[in-house]
Amino acid sequence: MEDELRKIDLIRERTRLSYERARALLQEAGGDVVAALILWERRGGETGAGRGAGEVVERLREVVQRGNRTMVRVSRGDQTYLEIPVTVGVMAAALAPHLAVAGAAACVLAGCSVRVQEKGAGREGAGSTPDSRTADGTTPA
């Protein structure tokens, strides 16, 4: 048991893998540390940091996809003035923050409502969906 732990520690020091992954690699190599390191290299030498970066990229991709499915709708009464994906709105606000502030002020002064809604929720009965909110964050009646 102690010999196995020493071998796992050696693998972890050289690869920065977790105990679980280092142990699995060691077992796959039949208990041979050098063979385990060669296996790790052949698989691309993915460290814990690389794995974390991949998870961040995947999470970012999910957020962008959800932003593309979620729409921002600016309207007054039955007239819709603007309907864009949240992702586009965030990018526009980041690139031109002064225009975003001016647009928000104009919207408030003109008495417009801003709704954020998932695409599949539909236009009718938008106030009853959990993903439909007005500019102040409340769900419309």
UniProtKB/TrEMBL annotation:
Annotated signal sequence is none
Entry superkingdom:
Bacteria
Q: Where is the composition biased (Polar residues)?
A: 129-141
Give the residue ranges for region: Disordered.
119-141
Every DUF4342 domain range:
54-117
Q: Which InterPro entries match?
A: DUF4342, UBA-like_sf
What start-end ranges are recorded for coiled-coil regions in this protein? none
The protein depicted here goes by the name DUF4342 domain-containing protein
This chain's source organism reads Carboxydichorda subterranea
